[in-house]
Design goal:
By secondary structure, this protein is mainly α. It contains two helices and three strands; from the N terminus they run H-H-E-E-E. The protein has one domain. The chain has a three-stranded antiparallel sheet, with no helix packed on it.
Amino acid sequence: MNSRMHMGIIALCAAGVAVAACSKGPPPAPPSASAASSPTAAPTTEGAVFACPMHPDQTAHEPGRCATCGMHLVEKGAP
């Protein structure tokens, strides 16, 4: 291959990496920051446990976001 073709391939690869990096969006806020800064956060229920729908091992005693994926924590049903 000639050098012009190499440069074209490198440019296409760099553009693909840039598009892939930008498509993810910003990282989710930490759970404590989103719950504390949200003025419309639901009041905590005494003894309630909130968990991530995708990562049930991620739990909290107040609404917030999952530390793994950023999804909203939902209240678990009573045992």
